[in-house]
Known about the structure:
The chain has three helices and 45 strands. The protein has 491 residues and is mainly beta.
Amino acid sequence: MNLKAEHIGATIATGIITWLIAIVFPFSPAPEVPEEYPKPLRIVNVDSLAALNTAIDDARPGDHIIVKNGAYESKQYILIQVEGTPANPIVIKSESEDAVEIRGEYGFGVNGSRNLIISGFKFTHSQDNSASTDNIVFMCNDCNGVRITHNTFALTSNYDGQADEELAGEFMADWLGVTGYSTGNRIDNNEFMQKNTRGAFLLLLGKEGRVVQNTLVDHNLFSGQLYQHGNGGECFRIGNSALGNAPGNMVMEYNTFEHCDGDREAITIKASNNIIRYNTFRNNEGSLTFRHGNANTADGNIFIDGNNGIRVYGHDHRIVNNYFANNPMTVSSLLAPIVIGKGTVENDLSTSNSEHSQPRNILIAHNTLVNNKAAIVIGYGSGSYAPTLITVANNIVTGSTGKMVTVYSGSSVEFSINLLYPTGSATLGDVPLSGYMNVNPQLVILDGMMVPSATSPAIDAVPEAEAFGVKTDIEAKVRTGMFDLGAYEIP
């Protein structure tokens, strides 16, 4: 196997922590991220905010605006409305990464920009100005081909009384938002850290019934969403309750989420046709939740040592190749590793609402679940629309407590070639008479993960025709011949 450790953060300050975590809990291998930008046609050096504003106003394709290292106190928005070209983007970057700090009351505001790169800044300015930008502090509105990369977001707030819930709403802020008719943007290699207010670190929204399109969110660290008053404390959200049926075509990959404890939903998906893959979730209270929307995919994610997993509503979702370990939550919780809820409506609405769409045509395949107090839960919650057309196939589930499978309600729940192995006080739970085998999976530890040994009955157990289209594994390796059960395809 090639479980290569990937870096977690984007800054030197987190380098040691990143290295240690990567050794113990390695990521799936990721492609190399190009750090070189197109060569400048002109370099403009600035050493003040006034000079930066002038350089932005005068910017032309191919300009690299280099901000001299130091701390800058901003009293108003640094507005950016520029147009580069794909071959010659406009680059606004720090002289040295993480060595230009934007303090004070305001930071960057990007509007209608094309082919722009913002790189290497540390944003520690106030988030409390967000009321003037619809609760979004750093807004990239109507952007096309904008890349926000290698920055640190550690915004400040006058709100420091977590016990005072009455004041919490006054200090709500989403830190970075991509909005309007934006398309083709990238958020990568940034660090978002230590947020104690309501609102997301990162929000992808939209306009007039349309969610932002084709956003790539990759190789970021989201750490320390510490808001204590429940709903509204996600780390990341795409869409909203009125945009569930809107396709976003977002890809979120190779990110790390740690101590995302502000909401039961660390990631909230409220749009359709998005892919969340190859991310690592460690020590979180919140889950990856398909809250509104259809045809979303969770592929190759790692969930370790937290009260979290994947929770699903809506139609046509795929939960494949994910790894879940050491979740202490019991079946009575929304935060078990895999939870398929019940619907209060049959289909998502197109207006603002708090309903849950009926789960229908959901694939749960080639996942590995080890040492969790609960594992796969189907039909949890209230509502009149029980899940239907649920396929549970080619998974490995083992543990010493609780049930391997719990089915509260549901119709047409089909099992196929699963390996379920309860030990200790654990039981198989609510399983049919067929579609699984109760044998020891013979797992071994490799690079901190539990994978099938060479003699495991999970090896070569699945004909390709019965793999439900799952042709790669948790490491993005192509499965060949007879496929292996669980998330890993053993060479």
